[in-house]
Amino acid sequence: MADYRTVNRANWDERAPAHAASPDYEVERFATDPTFLSAVVRFDRPRLGDLTGLRGVHLQCHIGTDTVSLARLGARMTGLDFSGASLAQAREVARRADADVDFVEADVYDAAEVLDAGGFDLVYTGIGALCWLPGIARWAEVVGRLLRPGGRLFVREGHPVLWAVDESRADRALALEYPYFERPEPTVWDEGGTYVSTDHVFTQNVTHEWNHGLGEIVTAVLGAGMRVTGLVEHDSIPWNGLPGQLTRGDDQEWRLVDRPERLPMSYTLQAVREAR
Protein backbone atom coordinates (compact mmCIF):
# COMPACT_ATOMS: atom_id res chain seq x y z
CA MET A 1 0.00 0.00 0.00
CA ALA A 2 1.28 3.48 -0.87
CA ASP A 3 2.28 5.76 1.99
CA TYR A 4 -0.85 7.51 3.21
CA ARG A 5 0.87 10.90 3.23
CA THR A 6 1.82 10.65 -0.44
CA VAL A 7 -1.70 9.61 -1.44
CA ASN A 8 -3.46 12.22 0.69
CA ARG A 9 -1.08 15.02 -0.25
CA ALA A 10 -1.78 14.44 -3.94
CA ASN A 11 -5.51 14.74 -3.20
CA TRP A 12 -5.09 18.01 -1.28
CA ASP A 13 -2.56 19.48 -3.72
CA GLU A 14 -5.05 19.11 -6.55
CA ARG A 15 -8.01 20.46 -4.61
CA ALA A 16 -6.36 23.50 -3.01
CA PRO A 17 -6.73 25.89 -6.00
CA ALA A 18 -10.35 24.81 -6.51
CA HIS A 19 -11.11 25.38 -2.82
CA ALA A 20 -9.60 28.87 -2.92
CA ALA A 21 -11.66 29.68 -6.01
CA SER A 22 -14.91 28.27 -4.61
CA PRO A 23 -17.47 30.71 -3.18
CA ASP A 24 -17.79 28.42 -0.16
CA TYR A 25 -14.44 29.54 1.27
CA GLU A 26 -15.35 33.22 0.68
CA VAL A 27 -11.75 34.22 -0.04
CA GLU A 28 -12.88 37.47 -1.67
CA ARG A 29 -14.52 38.55 1.58
CA PHE A 30 -11.17 38.37 3.36
CA ALA A 31 -9.77 40.80 0.79
CA THR A 32 -12.64 43.29 0.87
CA ASP A 33 -13.77 43.19 4.52
CA PRO A 34 -11.04 43.55 7.18
CA THR A 35 -13.43 42.34 9.89
CA PHE A 36 -14.52 39.18 8.09
CA LEU A 37 -13.99 35.81 9.82
CA SER A 38 -14.43 32.28 8.52
CA ALA A 39 -17.71 30.57 9.38
CA VAL A 40 -15.86 27.97 11.46
CA VAL A 41 -14.15 30.58 13.64
CA ARG A 42 -17.34 32.69 13.89
CA PHE A 43 -19.19 29.65 15.24
CA ASP A 44 -16.72 29.23 18.10
CA ARG A 45 -16.13 32.92 18.73
CA PRO A 46 -17.74 32.86 22.23
CA ARG A 47 -15.59 29.86 23.24
CA LEU A 48 -12.33 31.22 21.83
CA GLY A 49 -12.31 34.25 24.13
CA ASP A 50 -9.71 37.01 23.93
CA LEU A 51 -6.78 36.00 21.71
CA THR A 52 -4.99 39.34 21.80
CA GLY A 53 -1.23 38.84 21.84
CA LEU A 54 -1.36 35.06 22.05
CA ARG A 55 1.13 33.07 20.02
CA GLY A 56 -0.83 30.44 18.12
CA VAL A 57 -0.30 27.65 15.63
CA HIS A 58 -3.01 26.21 13.39
CA LEU A 59 -2.18 22.59 12.60
CA GLN A 60 -3.34 21.23 9.21
CA CYS A 61 -4.34 24.74 8.18
CA HIS A 62 -5.12 24.00 4.49
CA ILE A 63 -5.69 27.32 2.63
CA GLY A 64 -5.51 29.36 5.82
CA THR A 65 -8.92 31.01 6.12
CA ASP A 66 -9.30 29.93 9.76
CA THR A 67 -5.66 30.87 10.41
CA VAL A 68 -6.19 34.38 9.07
CA SER A 69 -9.42 34.64 11.09
CA LEU A 70 -7.57 33.83 14.32
CA ALA A 71 -4.95 36.43 13.43
CA ARG A 72 -7.74 38.97 12.97
CA LEU A 73 -8.84 38.19 16.52
CA GLY A 74 -5.43 39.29 17.78
CA ALA A 75 -3.31 36.12 17.84
CA ARG A 76 0.18 35.96 16.30
CA MET A 77 -0.49 32.97 14.07
CA THR A 78 1.55 30.32 12.31
CA GLY A 79 -0.16 27.88 9.96
CA LEU A 80 1.27 24.41 9.30
CA ASP A 81 0.28 22.01 6.53
CA PHE A 82 1.92 19.20 4.55
CA SER A 83 0.51 20.40 1.21
CA GLY A 84 2.66 22.95 -0.56
CA ALA A 85 -0.19 23.75 -2.94
CA SER A 86 -2.48 24.50 0.01
CA LEU A 87 0.11 26.78 1.57
CA ALA A 88 0.56 28.66 -1.70
CA GLN A 89 -3.13 29.50 -1.55
CA ALA A 90 -2.91 30.28 2.18
CA ARG A 91 -0.13 32.79 1.63
CA GLU A 92 -2.19 34.49 -1.07
CA VAL A 93 -5.24 34.60 1.21
CA ALA A 94 -3.12 36.19 3.96
CA ARG A 95 -1.57 38.67 1.52
CA ARG A 96 -4.95 39.79 0.21
CA ALA A 97 -6.33 39.97 3.76
CA ASP A 98 -3.31 42.00 4.90
CA ALA A 99 -2.73 39.47 7.67
CA ASP A 100 0.70 38.85 9.17
CA VAL A 101 0.75 35.05 9.28
CA ASP A 102 3.67 32.64 8.90
CA PHE A 103 3.12 29.39 7.04
CA VAL A 104 5.30 26.30 7.41
CA GLU A 105 5.23 23.20 5.20
CA ALA A 106 5.58 20.03 7.27
CA ASP A 107 3.73 16.91 8.35
CA VAL A 108 1.73 17.50 11.51
CA TYR A 109 3.63 14.76 13.34
CA ASP A 110 6.86 16.75 12.72
CA ALA A 111 5.45 20.04 14.03
CA ALA A 112 7.40 20.04 17.28
CA GLU A 113 10.65 19.57 15.34
CA VAL A 114 10.11 22.39 12.84
CA LEU A 115 8.37 24.88 15.16
CA ASP A 116 9.21 26.34 18.57
CA ALA A 117 8.39 23.48 20.92
CA GLY A 118 6.94 24.75 24.18
CA GLY A 119 6.50 28.24 22.77
CA PHE A 120 2.81 28.44 21.89
CA ASP A 121 -0.11 29.80 23.90
CA LEU A 122 -2.65 28.25 21.53
CA VAL A 123 -2.75 25.16 19.32
CA TYR A 124 -5.80 25.23 17.05
CA THR A 125 -7.20 22.43 14.91
CA GLY A 126 -10.27 22.92 12.73
CA ILE A 127 -12.93 20.88 11.00
CA GLY A 128 -11.86 17.85 8.98
CA ALA A 129 -8.27 17.49 10.22
CA LEU A 130 -7.99 14.54 12.60
CA CYS A 131 -9.43 11.98 10.18
CA TRP A 132 -6.20 12.17 8.14
CA LEU A 133 -4.05 10.93 11.03
CA PRO A 134 -3.50 7.22 11.78
CA GLY A 135 -2.73 7.72 15.49
CA ILE A 136 -4.49 10.21 17.75
CA ALA A 137 -2.17 9.61 20.73
CA ARG A 138 0.84 10.60 18.62
CA TRP A 139 -0.97 13.78 17.56
CA ALA A 140 -1.79 14.68 21.17
CA GLU A 141 1.86 14.19 22.12
CA VAL A 142 2.85 16.71 19.43
CA VAL A 143 0.28 19.19 20.74
CA GLY A 144 1.60 18.79 24.28
CA ARG A 145 5.15 19.46 23.08
CA LEU A 146 4.10 22.62 21.22
CA LEU A 147 2.21 24.22 24.11
CA ARG A 148 3.85 26.20 26.88
CA PRO A 149 2.68 25.32 30.42
CA GLY A 150 -0.78 26.83 30.71
CA GLY A 151 -1.17 26.97 26.93
CA ARG A 152 -4.47 25.90 25.39
CA LEU A 153 -5.56 23.33 22.82
CA PHE A 154 -8.69 24.28 20.87
CA VAL A 155 -10.33 21.75 18.53
CA ARG A 156 -13.50 22.05 16.45
CA GLU A 157 -13.98 18.83 14.57
CA GLY A 158 -16.53 16.59 12.92
CA HIS A 159 -17.95 14.12 15.42
CA PRO A 160 -16.66 10.54 15.14
CA VAL A 161 -20.26 9.31 15.10
CA LEU A 162 -20.85 11.40 11.97
CA TRP A 163 -17.73 9.97 10.32
CA ALA A 164 -19.14 6.47 10.95
CA VAL A 165 -22.50 7.19 9.25
CA ASP A 166 -23.15 5.92 5.71
CA GLU A 167 -24.14 9.08 3.82
CA SER A 168 -25.02 7.23 0.60
CA ARG A 169 -28.09 5.27 1.74
CA ALA A 170 -31.06 5.82 -0.51
CA ASP A 171 -33.48 5.38 2.42
CA ARG A 172 -31.65 8.15 4.36
CA ALA A 173 -31.45 6.00 7.47
CA LEU A 174 -28.72 6.97 9.92
CA ALA A 175 -26.77 3.73 9.68
CA LEU A 176 -23.35 3.27 11.27
CA GLU A 177 -21.41 1.64 8.43
CA TYR A 178 -17.80 2.70 9.02
CA PRO A 179 -15.43 2.34 12.01
CA TYR A 180 -16.03 4.56 15.02
CA PHE A 181 -12.90 3.50 16.89
CA GLU A 182 -9.35 3.99 15.68
CA ARG A 183 -7.89 0.94 13.98
CA PRO A 184 -4.46 0.36 12.38
CA GLU A 185 -5.65 0.07 8.80
CA PRO A 186 -7.21 3.08 7.07
CA THR A 187 -10.56 3.36 5.37
CA VAL A 188 -9.60 3.83 1.72
CA TRP A 189 -11.84 6.00 -0.42
CA ASP A 190 -11.80 6.52 -4.18
CA GLU A 191 -14.16 9.42 -4.79
CA GLY A 192 -14.20 12.36 -7.17
CA GLY A 193 -15.48 15.76 -6.23
CA THR A 194 -14.92 17.65 -3.00
CA TYR A 195 -16.86 19.27 -0.18
CA VAL A 196 -17.19 22.73 -1.79
CA SER A 197 -18.93 24.01 -4.90
CA THR A 198 -16.69 23.66 -7.96
CA ASP A 199 -16.89 22.57 -11.58
CA HIS A 200 -13.34 21.22 -11.54
CA VAL A 201 -12.91 17.55 -12.45
CA PHE A 202 -10.31 15.92 -10.23
CA THR A 203 -7.98 13.03 -11.02
CA GLN A 204 -6.36 12.45 -7.59
CA ASN A 205 -9.31 10.85 -5.84
CA VAL A 206 -7.90 8.20 -3.48
CA THR A 207 -7.61 9.02 0.22
CA HIS A 208 -6.65 7.09 3.36
CA GLU A 209 -8.56 8.11 6.47
CA TRP A 210 -9.03 7.04 10.09
CA ASN A 211 -11.72 7.68 12.66
CA HIS A 212 -10.96 8.27 16.34
CA GLY A 213 -13.61 7.77 19.01
CA LEU A 214 -14.36 10.68 21.30
CA GLY A 215 -13.09 8.72 24.30
CA GLU A 216 -9.87 7.93 22.45
CA ILE A 217 -9.35 11.62 21.69
CA VAL A 218 -9.97 12.72 25.29
CA THR A 219 -7.76 9.93 26.63
CA ALA A 220 -4.95 10.94 24.24
CA VAL A 221 -5.17 14.56 25.34
CA LEU A 222 -5.06 13.60 29.02
CA GLY A 223 -2.16 11.23 28.39
CA ALA A 224 -0.16 14.02 26.77
CA GLY A 225 -0.22 16.09 29.95
CA MET A 226 -3.25 18.27 29.28
CA ARG A 227 -6.34 18.92 31.39
CA VAL A 228 -9.66 19.01 29.55
CA THR A 229 -11.46 22.29 30.29
CA GLY A 230 -14.36 22.03 27.87
CA LEU A 231 -16.15 19.55 25.63
CA VAL A 232 -19.29 20.61 23.78
CA GLU A 233 -21.09 18.39 21.26
CA HIS A 234 -23.03 20.18 18.51
CA ASP A 235 -25.97 19.16 16.34
CA SER A 236 -24.46 20.96 13.33
CA ILE A 237 -21.53 21.08 10.92
CA PRO A 238 -20.32 23.83 8.55
CA TRP A 239 -20.75 21.80 5.35
CA ASN A 240 -23.45 19.65 3.77
CA GLY A 241 -22.11 16.38 5.10
CA LEU A 242 -25.26 14.28 4.57
CA PRO A 243 -26.69 15.41 1.22
CA GLY A 244 -30.47 15.35 1.10
CA GLN A 245 -30.81 15.14 4.89
CA LEU A 246 -29.57 18.53 6.11
CA THR A 247 -30.77 22.10 6.01
CA ARG A 248 -28.68 25.24 6.44
CA GLY A 249 -29.56 27.64 9.22
CA ASP A 250 -29.09 31.38 9.65
CA ASP A 251 -25.76 30.64 11.39
CA GLN A 252 -24.54 28.96 8.15
CA GLU A 253 -24.42 25.59 9.94
CA TRP A 254 -26.06 22.45 8.54
CA ARG A 255 -28.41 20.33 10.68
CA LEU A 256 -30.66 17.32 10.16
CA VAL A 257 -34.06 18.27 8.77
CA ASP A 258 -35.66 15.44 10.72
CA ARG A 259 -35.06 15.51 14.49
CA PRO A 260 -31.56 17.00 14.62
CA GLU A 261 -31.24 15.97 18.25
CA ARG A 262 -30.59 12.39 17.08
CA LEU A 263 -27.05 12.89 15.82
CA PRO A 264 -23.96 14.61 17.24
CA MET A 265 -22.44 16.27 14.18
CA SER A 266 -19.40 18.05 15.57
CA TYR A 267 -17.72 18.97 18.83
CA THR A 268 -15.50 21.61 20.38
CA LEU A 269 -12.78 20.39 22.72
CA GLN A 270 -10.55 22.57 24.87
CA ALA A 271 -7.65 21.55 27.09
CA VAL A 272 -4.79 23.23 28.95
CA ARG A 273 -1.28 21.89 29.22
CA GLU A 274 -0.34 21.23 32.82
CA ALA A 275 3.02 22.35 34.19
CA ARG A 276 5.53 19.50 34.00
From TrEMBL:
<keyword id="KW-0808">Transferase</keyword>
<feature type="domain" description="Methyltransferase type 12">
    <location>
        <begin position="58"/>
        <end position="153"/>
    </location>
</feature>
<protein>
    <submittedName>
        <fullName>Class I SAM-dependent methyltransferase</fullName>
    </submittedName>
</protein>
<dbReference type="Pfam" id="PF08242">
    <property type="entry name" value="Methyltransf_12"/>
</dbReference>
<dbReference type="InterPro" id="IPR029063">
    <property type="entry name" value="SAM-dependent_MTases_sf"/>
</dbReference>
<dbReference type="GO" id="GO:0032259">
    <property type="term" value="P:methylation"/>
</dbReference>
<keyword id="KW-0489">Methyltransferase</keyword>
<dbReference type="InterPro" id="IPR013217">
    <property type="entry name" value="Methyltransf_12"/>
</dbReference>
<dbReference type="GO" id="GO:0008168">
    <property type="term" value="F:methyltransferase activity"/>
</dbReference>
